[in-house]
Amino acid sequence: MRKRVFNQIILIVMAFIISACNNVSSSNSTEYQVIEKYVSNAISEDGVVVTPFNTTISLTMYNSKDTNEYFPLFEEEVLKLHKYFDRYNYYQDNTGKRISNLKVINDSYGTNEEILINDELYDLLNLSLEMTKLTKGYFNPTLGGLIDLWSDKFFLIPLENTDPDNDLITEALKCSASKENIDEVIVLNPIKKSVIFNKIDGCNGKVIISLGAIAKGYAMEKAKSLVKDVPSLIDGGRSSLIATGTNPNPNRDTWNLAILTPYTAINLGVLAIKGELTFSTSGDYEKCFYIINDDGSLTIRHHILNPSTGYSENYYRSISLLSDGNAGVIDALSTALFNVNDIDIIDEIVKNVEDYYLLDIEFLFEKEIIIDGKKMIDVIVNENFWNLIVADSISSVVNIVNILE
Amino acid sequence: MDISLRKNKTDLFIVIIAAILVVFFVAINLFYSNSKDNIISVYYDNEIVHTMYLNIDEEYIMDKEEFPLLLDRMVIEVKQGRVRIKEEESPKHYCSIMGYQSQKGTSIICAPNSVMIIIEGYEDTGIDWTPGGAA
Amino acid sequence: MTTKMVVRYGFFLALSVILSYIEYLVEIPILFPGAKLGLANAVGLLVLYYFGIKYFSMFGVLRVVLSAILWTGFGINFFISLSGTILATITTILIAKHTNASIYGISISGAILHGLGQVIMVAILYQTLYMLTYVVFLTISGVITGYLMALIVANLICRMPKIVS
C-alpha cells in the first residue's frame, strides 16, 4: 500500500517535470521577441583587438529566425567597413596583404602617392568632401591632428581637466584643410577610384584625415541595405539609430524613441514614428570634461570641435536629427550644426543638405537655461519633429519651445 | 493526538516526499531560468565571457590577470533577483554608482573596463530605444 | 473546550510567541541568514501532541498573527512567514492524520515545507524565482533543525506529566 502510493506520487511529480520541460523549450521562433546582438571586435595586423568604430554597434531583430539569418551578414559588413575606415590600425585581407585603409591614406600625406581604394572608402571620402562644402566648413574630415590634442581628456562623466596648449591648437588648425582648398588636398579620381593626399602649405606637421564623425553613420547606412526588408533597429554607439520596417511590437505600431536631456534619467520626451527612420543625437555630456574658468565658473569641453576655432562650442547641450535616410549624412550634419549658433545659417545648411541628397531632415536643439536656480531646457525644433513627440511625455524640465515652421 | 516518539520507517518516506517537492520546485525554477528572461550576459571587450542568472545568486570575480583591459579587479554580483557591479575601479567609480538592476532589457555599461552587463530579455516599457553614453 | 484547555492553549501560544521573539533578537545564524531554529514550531508540535489536530490547525497562524501585532508588523515578512507556516501546518496535519510517521518525520518535513512555503511566497511577491541556492540550504537546515526540534520535543514529552484531558 505504502509502496504503491509512493510510486504514484513519483509518477505524478515526474509528469509535472516533463511537461514543464516541454512547455518551455518549444518556443515559436517567429513570435515577438527582442533580440539585440552586438558586433564583435576586429583584429588588426598586429593582433590587437579593436572595437569597431570605437563603440558598440548592434542589430536588434524581433524573432530568432531573422536574427540568425541577417546578423552574420550584418556583422561581416560592419567589420569590413570598420577596417577600411580605421585611422589607427592596419588590417590584412584573406591573402595576408595589407588593405588600403584610412591609415594607409594618412601615411601617404604629402608623398604624392596615388592610393587605389575600395568603393566604400572612396564613397565615404567623397561624401566627406561634399558635406564639408554643404555645411560651409562646419563639418571637416581633416581634423585628426586637432582631435588628438583633445581626445585623451574626455570621459563619459565630466571630470576636471585643462585645455590643450593654445599654440598647439593653432598649429593643428594650420594642418587642417578648409572648405575652399579641401578638394585640392584630398584629390579623388572617380574613374580609378583612387586618392592623392596633398600637402597643405603652412602646415609644419602632418594633416590627418579623421572620419569619426561620419564613418559610423555611413557604415550603418550600408549595413541597412542588408536588412531593409525586415523590421530591425541598427544602433551605433547608442547615439545613432536606423529603424527598418514597421515596429512589430503587438502593443504599438510606432517606433518609440526617447530623447534625452543632459540630466540623468530625465527624458525630454518620446518620439513616436511609424515606419523607417534615421535618427542621430549628440550631446556635450557624452564625451567631455570641464575646465574651471578664472572667475570660478565651469565650462564644458566636449568632443565636437569647431573647425575654425579648434575648441568646442557651448551653444547647445544636445542636438537631435530625424530623417528618412542617409545616416552618414545625418551623422556629419549633427556634428556640424553643433558649432552653429545663427538660426539662419542652420536653415541654410539643412536646406543645402536636404536638396543635395533628396532628404527630409528635421532637427531639435536643446539649450540649457537656469530659472530660479533650477536647470531647464529651452527647445528649438522643427514643427514636424515636435508634432511627432508624444504630448504627455514631454518633461516638466522643458521651458520654452521655439517651433520653427 | 497519538504520535509515536520513536523514529520509524515512515519518517524517511515522508521526508523524502518533502524533499521531492522541494526538488520539483527547484526543477521548475531551473527550467524557467533557462528561458531568455533571466539570463545575464557579461561582455568583456564586446564578447560574452560569462553568463549569470537573475535567479541564481552569484559573485563573479574578474581579475586583471585574466582580463587585462580592466583597470583593476571587478566583482559582479547577482543577489535577490538583481545584478550590480559590486567592486570596480574607474574615475569616480562611475560604474558601480548605477547600483542594482533587475529589469529585463537593461544594461550596465562600464566602458572604462570594457565591460557590459546585459540582462537579456525584454520588458515592454513603451520605449524601443534610448540613447546612452557609449563612446 | 474547557477553561483549563483555553488557559493551557494560551500558555503554549504565548510561549511560542516569546520563543519566536527571542529567535528574532538573537538571530543565531545556523548555516546562513534567515534560517531559524524553529523553537516556536517545537511548541506547535507539543500542541499537536497534547491537544490534537483541531487545536494545532490554528496554532501556527495565530502565532504569526500575534507576532505581527506585537512586533513584526503586517508587511512583506508577515506574508512570507504566514505562507511558510500555513504550508507546514497543512502538510503536518495530513501526515499526522494519514500516516504513522513519528514526531521526527513530522518535524523534519514540517521544517522543510515551512521553508518551501516561504520561498514560494517570495517568488510570488517579487515576481522572480531567485532563491535557488537559498532553497537548497533552507532544505538542508530544515532537516537538521527539524531533527533537533523533534529530539527536544520527544524528550520533553517523555519527561512531562500527562496534561491534557
Explain this structure to me?
The complex is a heterotrimer of chains A (about 400), B (about 140) and C (about 160). Chain A contains eleven helices and 18 strands. Chain A is an alpha+beta fold. Chain A folds into two domains: about 1-85 and about 215-405, ApbE-like domains (T-fold); about 100-195, T-fold (Orthogonal Bundle). In chain A, a hairpin with a 3-residue loop joins strand 8 and strand 9. Chain B has a four-stranded antiparallel beta sheet with strand order 2-1-7-6, with no helix packed on it. Chain B has one helix at about 10-35; strands spanning about 40-45, 45-55, 60, 75-80, 80-85, 105-110, 115-120. Helix content of chain C is about 80%, strand content about 0%. In chain C, helix 1 packs antiparallel against helix 2 (about 40-50), helix 1 packs across helix 3 (about 55-70) and helix 5 packs antiparallel against helix 6 (about 130-160). The longest helix of chain C is centred in the last third of the chain and has 28 residues, at about 130-160. In chain C, about 45% of the residues are buried. The model of chain C has no long low-confidence stretch (mean pLDDT about 85).
Keywords, separated by commas or semicolons:
heterotrimer, A: 405 residues, alpha+beta, T-fold, 2 domains, 9-stranded mixed β-sheet, 3-stranded antiparallel β-sheet, 24% strand, globular, C: 165 residues, mainly alpha, 6 helices
Structural class of chain B: alpha+beta
- Looking across the biggest beta sheet of chain B, what order are the strands in? 2-1-7-6
User: Helical percent range of chain B?
Assistant: 10-25%
The strand count of chain B comes to: 7
Largest sheet of chain B: 4 strands, antiparallel
Of all protein chain pairs, which has the greatest interface, and how many residues does each chain bring to it? A-B, 50 and 40 residues
